């Protein structure tokens, strides 16, 4: 007894029998065909799977790319926005700084102007004071000069009056000397009492006070 072929299992068992060559060939062909078909199907499936995988991968890649692009775009937009915001902030800051500077400048200018005005006012006041002082001094000087002039004039007038009175007294003495000793004596006493008398008194008053007469027979007055 020999081994027997048991179909597709490929096992040789006890009880060998020669297989039918035609049947065997046919079976082999069928098997081969089936195997080929299976292989083809498998290949096709594999290919399909691969294609699907590839497609999926491609889609995923595309999606990823799109997502990346979107993210990039978003990032760019965000960056742009941030930049814009920063720029705006910077601009605002600059503007604020400029405004502050301008304000400071204006304040400084105002202060300077005020100071200048104050200085000018002070100067004007000083000038006015000086002018006033000068005027006052001038006025005082003028007044003093006037007073001095007046005093001088008065002195001169007094001197002239005194000289006139002395002349008149001398004349009166001369006139009375013709009358004799008594007349001369009365003239001397008149001269002695003259110093206490006022300048306005005339010669007639003097002679009347003394009791003598100014009028003489020789025609002198």
Q: Which overall shape is indicated by the principal axes computed on the Cα atoms?
A: rod-shaped
- Total strands: the figure is 2
Termini gap: 225 Å
What level of helicity do the residues show?
A: over 70%
Overall residue-averaged pLDDT value: 73
How many strands, what sense, and barrel or not for the largest sheet? Answer: 2 strands, antiparallel
What oligomeric arrangement do these chains adopt?
Answer: single chain
Protein structure class: mainly alpha
3D structure, described in words:
The protein has a domain at 153-210. The chain is rod-shaped and about 225 Å long. It has three helices and two strands, in the order ββααα. By secondary structure, the protein is an all-alpha fold. α1 (21-176) runs antiparallel to α2. It has a two-stranded antiparallel sheet. The model is unreliable at 213-221 (pLDDT under 50).
Quick structural overview:
The chain has 221 residues and is mainly α.
Key structural traits:
2 strands, mainly alpha, two-stranded antiparallel ribbon, structural constituent of chromatin, DNA binding, 3 helices
């Amino acid at each position: 007894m020999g081994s027997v072929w048991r179909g597709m299992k490929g096992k040789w068992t006890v009880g060998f029998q020669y297989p039918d060559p035609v049947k065997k060939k046919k079976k082999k062909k069928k098997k081969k065909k089936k195997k080929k078909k299976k292989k083809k199907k498998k290949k096709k499936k594999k290919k399909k799977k691969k294609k699907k995988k590839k497609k999926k991968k491609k889609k995923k890649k595309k999606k990823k790319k799109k997502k990346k692009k979107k993210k990039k775009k978003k990032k760019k937009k965000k960056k742009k926005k941030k930049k814009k915001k920063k720029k705006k902030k910077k601009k605002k800051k600059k503007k604020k700084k400029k405004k502050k500077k301008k304000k400071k400048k204006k304040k400084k200018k105002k202060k300077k102007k005020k100071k200048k005005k104050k200085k000018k006012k002070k100067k004007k006041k000083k000038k006015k004071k000086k002018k006033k002082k000068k005027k006052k001094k001038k006025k005082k000087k003028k007044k003093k000069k006037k007073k001095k002039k007046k005093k001088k004039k008065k002195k001169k007038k007094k001197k002239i009056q005194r000289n006139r009175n002395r002349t008149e007294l001398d004349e009166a003495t001369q006139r009375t000397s013709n009358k004799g000793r008594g007349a001369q004596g009365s003239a001397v006493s008149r001269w002695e009492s003259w110093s206490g008398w006022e300048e306005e008194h005339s010669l007639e008053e003097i002679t009347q006070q003394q009791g003598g007469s100014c009028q003489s027979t020789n025609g002198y007055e």
